Known about the structure:
The structure is a single chain. It is built from 16 helices and 14 strands. By secondary structure, the protein is of the alpha/beta class. The protein folds into two domains: 3-166 and 347-363, 3-Layer(aba) Sandwich (Rossmann fold), CATH 3.40.50; 169-343, Glycogen Phosphorylase B (Rossmann fold, 3-Layer(aba) Sandwich). The strands form two sheets. A seven-stranded parallel beta sheet has the order 3-2-1-4-5-6-7, with helices on both faces. Strands 10-11-9-8-12-13-14 form a seven-stranded mixed beta sheet, sandwiched between helices. Helix 1 crosses helix 16 and helix 3 (69-91) packs across helix 4. It is globular, with a radius of gyration of 21 Å.
Amino acid sequence: MTNYLLAGGGTAGHVNPLLALADKIRQHEPDAKIFALGTPEGLENRLVPERGYELLTVPKLPLPRKPSAYALKFPFALNAAVRSVQAMIRQHKIDVVVGFGGYASAPAYLAASRSKVALVIHEANALPGFANRLGARRASAVAVAFSNNKLASPGGGKPAHTGMPLRPEIEALLAAPKDSTAAAHFGLSTDQPILLVTGGSLGARSINNAVDASRNVLVAAGIQVLHIVGEKSELPLLDEPGFKRIAYCDRMDLAIACASFALSRAGASTVSEFAAVGLPAAYVPYPVGNGEQRFNVESLVAAGGGILVDDKDLNAEWISSTLVPLISNHRALAEMAKKAKSNGIGDASERLYRLVRGVLAERQ
C-alpha cells in the first residue's frame, strides 16, 4: 500500500489537476491512502472534502515582493511550515509527494527533500511559477501540461509532457457522442451553432462587454450564445431565444459538450480541456501579470486549433468582422476542431500516474 501527499491549492487551476490525479490513484489503487495539502483559505477547503479526501493545511505564505516586517519574518514562518509538513510526512508514512504549485507546495517540496521522500512536480502553465521552479531542483521527476514549458527536469533533461490532468466529467466527454441533452440543459438547440463565452469563475470584463455589445449581431447571424459572465459581473442575467447569460455554470462539462466554438481566457485548465475534447476557440489572454496565458495557448494556436486575440483588440467590431464569419463557416470550424483535438491530451491523469509510479519503482 502506498501513501500519497498531493500538494497544491489556492485556485481551481491547482486543485482540479490534484483531484484528477487523486481519482486516478484511487481507481488503480483502492487501498492507497491519499492526503491533500493546501492552505486554510483556498478552494481546496471545499473541493477536497467534497471529493472524499482528507485535507491537511499549512499557513498561506506569499513570497515577499519588497522589504517589510513580513519579509523579515518570512524565512522563519516558511521554516515552521516545512517542519509541520515533515511531521505530516512522518505521521502518515508518506511514500511520495506530488506537487502542483501554489502556496502549499513550497513547504511540501522542502519537506520532501529534507525527509528524503520521492518528489514529483506537475506544472500546469507554460510559464512555471516560483514554487515549481524551486521544487524542480529537488524533484525526482517533473511533468508539464504544455510542450513549450522550459521547466528543467532533474539532471537538466526535458520534463515529461503529460498534459493537464482532466476532471473526470471532462474525460467522460472524450468517449461520448454529441447529443441534444447538453444543449437542452441550457435551453438551447442543436439546430444552430452555439458559442460558449467564459472568462473564468470571476468573469472577464472585456470579454463580457464585447459580447454584450454584439448580442444582436450574433443572434441575427444564427449563432446561439451561452454567456457565463462570472459571479462578480454587473451585467444582468438573460434568458432570451438564442442567448442565455448566466453568472456561474456548475455543469461546464455540458457547456463544453454542446458548444461549437468558445471565446475565453487562456487559463491552463481551460486550454487543456477545450483541446482535449476538440473544441475550437478564440483565446483572449489575461493582459495583466507575467503573461503565462499567452504561452499556454502558443502551441495550440500554431497547430491551428484556435486563434489568439489581444484583450485590447476584443470589441464588437472584431466579433462582427472575425468571429461571426468563422463560426458561420462550418467546414473551417470542423477543421479547427480536428486540429484542436490532435493537439490535446485526453489521458493526462493516467500519464502523470504512470510517471509517479515509475519514480516509486526506481526508489524501491
